[in-house]
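Researcher: Batch entry, complex prediction.
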Amino acid sequence: MSMPIARVNELDCEEFVQIFGNAVEHCSICAAAVWRHSPFNDVYQIYNKTAEFLDQLPISGKEAVLRLHPDLAGKLAISGRLTNESSREQTLSGMLALSETEKEMLERLNTSYKSKFKFPFVICVRENKKKAIFDGIRARLANTPEEETLVGLEEVKKICRLRLLDIVDPGCPKL
Amino acid sequence: MSMPIARVNELDCEEFVQIFGNAVEHCSICAAAVWRHSPFNDVYQIYNKTAEFLDQLPISGKEAVLRLHPDLAGKLAISGRLTNESSREQTLSGMLALSETEKEMLERLNTSYKSKFKFPFVICVRENKKKAIFDGIRARLANTPEEETLVGLEEVKKICRLRLLDIVDPGCPKL
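Model: Structure tokens for the complex:
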């Protein structure tokens, strides 16, 4: 459904939010903020404005963005209640086809992580293989909450960038 | 479905967002931010934390919150696509039963308003009668965009307060 940028620039706010509302998982506020900058030159400008908006949120807002993400291979995934985007990403990553031992290990790591940070572990699974994901959660458990909020937010941006590129035709490749 | 505060304090983040995610229209990020402060003393504390979060948003975020609200008696209302909360509020206010002349007038005012401010006119219809609503939109059209963002946000807070009181039993009345 790759859409040319000219078509994106014709969308009114409601249509824009409908299409881009989950570029940041469950955060239609991002799309509603970014729409203000329409017309866009290209998909990269939509991405940059989204990243800028995320950076401007107070720390409580950044944490809330992370908190609206599902657990990796967690209960929403198991019960088939992920958003379409998350479902596709988690399935392709192989994280929904773990061995029993791996599942138990991930559950333990997820629990420790959430009990320390009060938000779920977020990683761009499309840019990481299983080993890197397990290594990532272990390494990031050592961060302070403030550090980890920012690390998590960078992953949100990577996920968002790929989701935007699924929706909008990037046009000529950037030189 | 009025819920005692003790029950609210047992909710995990996902459940909390499910129940309170539309206390601010389409802004589950508010509920996700406010959950951090659980356990709450009472519904008024949930309200205060939500208002505090809204106040801390950058101006682009405040505008985006307004932008996620439906037009008053607009196309979502006409086509029956409002959220349950908005539908109930707009119906009770009488704004969905206007005469043809009033409808045309409101449409003209809504259009001028949105073209000036780039977000829809938001007013707590449960606290205003039809005349006050029409007078409100006319008077507020004279505001600067910055003033009007803050005026709109105060209405968002009033709507939120009443929605929270629909969900949570306030317990003893405040002395």
